[in-house]
Amino acid sequence: MPACVLKTIKTFREGVPVKIRTRAAGAVLLLSAALLTAAADLATAPANVNARRLAKADREPGQWMTYGGTYSEQRFSMLKQINSDNVGQLGLQWFADYETNQDQHGSPLYIDGVIYVSTSRNVVYAYDAKSGKELWKYNAMIHGERLRYNVGLVNRGIAAWNGKIYMGTLDARLVAIDAKSGKEVWSTDTVPDSLGLGEMGKHYAITMAARAAKGKIFIGASGGEFGVRGFIAAYDAETGKEVWRFWTVPGDPAKGYESKALERAAKTWSGEWWKSSGGGGTVWDGALYDPVTDLLYFGTGNASPWNERTREPTLDDDLYSASIVAVNPDTGAYVWHYQETPGDAWDYDAVSPMMTADLPIGGSRKHVILQPSKNGFFYVIEAKSGKLLSADPFTEVNWATGVDLKTGRPNVVPGARYKDAPWDLAPGVQGGHSWHPNAFSPETGLVYIPAWDAYFTMAGPAPGAPPAPGSGFSLGITMGAKVDPSKLQPYARSGVSGRLEAWDPVTRKVVWQTESWNNGRPTGGVLATAGNLVFMGNGGGKFLSAYDAKSGTKLWTFDAQTAIFAAPISYTLDGVQYIAASVGGAGQGGYFAPTHARMLVFTLGGKAVLPEPEPYEPPPLNPPPATAAADEVTHGGTLYTQHCSVCHGANGFQSRSSFPNLTVTPLLWTQEGFDQVVLLGGRADKGMGNFSKDLTPEDTAAVRAYLISRAHAIKDGGPGAH
């Protein structure tokens, strides 16, 4: 085939048209035939996403090709076949069960007849969007020993580009998956040994959704509570090769700074932060590429540890933590930043989802970034310059009295820094809003926020308090501090309640809000549509609901039998509009309880029915006889604390529903079965690591003996049971 034809096909695939001139009539016919064939192939190719198509995604309202729907990340669907007049007829069309018992945070993509969705523990499914038939399943086979440095086994979403699906993993890899076959194309370690991070490189994890633009995949990583240094990086979409890396906080000054921006940031730190805590500032969620400004925006997490007084002596701003940062997407070069919470002492990550919009502000139309932040303020920022235009509380805020629009700095209440006495923080470390996606409707001009009222007692650490054993987890506070309510300032409140809130970013006020759900778990993500509807799930309940976008009236609800965290999407296929939601959340039964995690797809007149949940009985506490010597049990307890407790609970008590309670596992009955999992990777597909490099067979025998001893103590209820 002539080179000119190959070039034209290549540029056509990339979405950039070119004109080829030729004198030969035969060549013209060949060129035309080749282009027609290429066009036909691309029209049916899975995940046929390129720069041109994503930039004009609003012209294909029946697709959902990127995390937020379009590059603006407004999560607004222009579809209106399903609307506020007929939503009562919405019914389940099909469902597909996941093989998991974990919380589901992954918002799906829909591209040309196929739904792609990431689930917990980095498993991705592809479904025929009309029938629900599973087309393929991919398992990233994460290294389970890395999970001790993670606070949840979730993934929030995926990206698509040129026939591939991209996902960040819990062991900090970026993987590319062939969208047709589900086979892995490439896998890149985002924290390779070449960075010189040593053991700290194992403390990173990725839960955020990757973003794709300009032939690159952008991804950041979490781990701020485990002593890491935050970053976001860009990778070549075809090869996985790193293009650039932006570190969000400065490193060891003796090694020099990667940029002038970091050299300036270092002046806002003191002490030896790079040794004691790594600095934090991780990029674990909100990011977007904006073709209008040709900038990449991302939020950064808290400086580490939480308590500024245990972090660095000058109590300065600690840039670029708790900030929104703009960089050049081609080079990673710094452009601007706005720090929402200087000298953060409250875990106020600035990583909540953000969006761009064009709004009438101050007598002119401005292209802005909108973000309801974890710290309780709703920010409107000029997208090109980073200038703060407004900042207003959208939920209860008691750590600051407001934000000075001239300086951009919050007016912090002195007592909120809990130097001399504990402070009942609002919003608490849970946030006034977290990673759960918001939506904006250009038709109503409202931002729909999964808003929370949250409270948390902030108290400095007890003298000499060590980090959690074996975890490297250090916050600089007394977690779960017990304080006399009559002496707690400014009041004594606790817990989390959620609601759906409609916020006007121009008039800067709440237009409507639903009643609060006082169930201790967060609300789900949001979808807005041109049908005058807002869809949102309930992380503490089991209902997916639709609300009137103008009034907030609840118009429809569906019993999903499980918690809902991820935001729904909408798409069309053969002229029919659908709503798709990935659901599933661990209930009170813990790890062994079913989550009923599924993909649910709805349309008008849908008649499918979910099966009745099967009765659940927790596994019995039935340990084998305890025959080990006391010194072996003691040794096993030490090893368990070092290697197992951060996931499976201290002293044999399960504290995280993401992992099984080992005092009730049947594996306790045979050493061979126990070693099959711990030493030989028998449950690697579930994310359980192979600890053969850390433990010997004698060690695992001691750990098993310890667990058997703990199981008997718990069963008997005698001394040492708690």
How would you describe what is shown here?
There is one protein chain. With 722 residues, this protein is of the alpha+beta class. It contains 9 helices and 36 strands. Strands 1-30-31-32-33 form a 5-stranded mixed β-sheet, with no helix packed on it. The longest helix is centred in the first third of the chain and has 20 residues, at 25-44. It is globular and about 80 Å long. Residues 1-33 and 35-40 have low confidence and may be disordered.
Topology:
Elements: H1 3-14, H2 25-44, H3 51-55, E1 76-77, E2 90-97, E3 109-111, E4 114-119, E5 123-128, E6 134-139, E7 159-161, E8 164-168, E9 173-178, E10 184-189, E11 211-213, E12 216-220, E13 231-236, E14 242-247, H4 260-266, H5 273-276, E15 287-290, E16 295-299, E17 323-327, E18 334-339, E19 355-361, E20 364-372, E21 377-382, E22 388-393, E23 400-403, E24 410-412, E25 423-425, E26 439-441, E27 446-458, E28 495-504, E29 509-513, E30 523-529, E31 533-538, E32 543-548, E33 554-559, E34 569-573, E35 576-583, E36 598-604, H6 630-643, H7 645-648, H8 671-678, H9 697-716
Parallel strand pairs: 1-30
Antiparallel strand pairs: 2-36, 3-4, 4-5, 5-6, 7-8, 8-9, 9-10, 11-12, 12-13, 13-14, 15-16, 16-17, 17-18, 19-20, 20-21, 21-22, 23-24, 25-27, 26-27, 27-28, 28-29, 30-31, 31-32, 32-33, 34-35, 35-36
Key traits:
five-stranded mixed sheet; alpha+beta; 9 helices
